[in-house]
Design a protein that fits this description.
By secondary structure, this protein is an all-alpha fold. The protein has one domain. Helices cover 92% and strands 0% of the residues. It has 3 helices and no strands. α2 packs antiparallel against α3. The longest helix is centred in the C-terminal third of the chain and has 44 residues. The two termini are 29 Å apart. The relative contact order is 0.17.
Length: 84
Amino acid sequence: MNDIERGQLAEAVLKNEVFQDAFAQINTEVFNEWQREPNEAKRNELWQLMQATKRLQTLLTQAMNNGKVELKRQSALGRMLKLS
């Protein structure tokens, strides 16, 4: 799979309403549990889970952006070759 295909798939996931709803629900639930949790070790686990969900979103966003950049690069290259 190339960067453009990966980017398109990542964008589809990020724009998917079911994914967005599930992601928001997980973030809300984990954050609320983190706020209420008195046990420091458990709070640390919940914090790590929140960071992992942020990392997932970051990785998907990076894949999407990389795909867009590659698509623009290939389009520009195609235009340059037509001008030659």
